[in-house]
Specification:
By secondary structure, this protein is α+β, with helices and mostly antiparallel strands. It is 21% helix and 28% strand. The C terminus is likely disordered.
């Protein structure tokens, strides 16, 4: 089984039960319980498959740090999570205000 190095740790690639390819991310259809990868998903252009593909490609290339969490969230939501205002508190947390929602996220230092 192949591994990729993420933040100094070796992470094993998973085997997709549908296409038998090695991938980093498996998605689950909660209605049926089926697991699949971005390569065999029925809608490869969907935001979910696009983010899974980017995570896999960046991890294999060793550049996952260049695809930050904020960009992943924006990609999952069609780019609608762009921060208008960001405030940091003394405890390492930030509040991000968006056009549609407000979310709190802990910073990883």
């Amino acid at each position: 089984m192949t591994t990729v190095r993420i933040n100094g740790k070796d992470v094993a690639l998973r085997i997709c039960p549908i296409c038998q390819r090695e991938v980093l991310v498996l998605m689950t259809d909660f209605a049926t319980g089926k697991r699949f990868c971005h390569l065999c998903y029925e809608d490869p252009g969907s935001t979910m498959a696009t983010v899974a593909r980017k995570i896999h490609d960046c991890a294999v290339a060793g550049t996952l740090d260049q695809y930050p969490l904020a960009e992943r969230i924006a990609d999952l939501n069609g780019g609608h999570w762009k921060a208008k205002e960001r405030r940091e508190s003394g405890r390492g947390q930030a509040r991000v205000r968006t056009a549609e929602k407000t979310m709190s996220a802990a910073f990883i230092n």
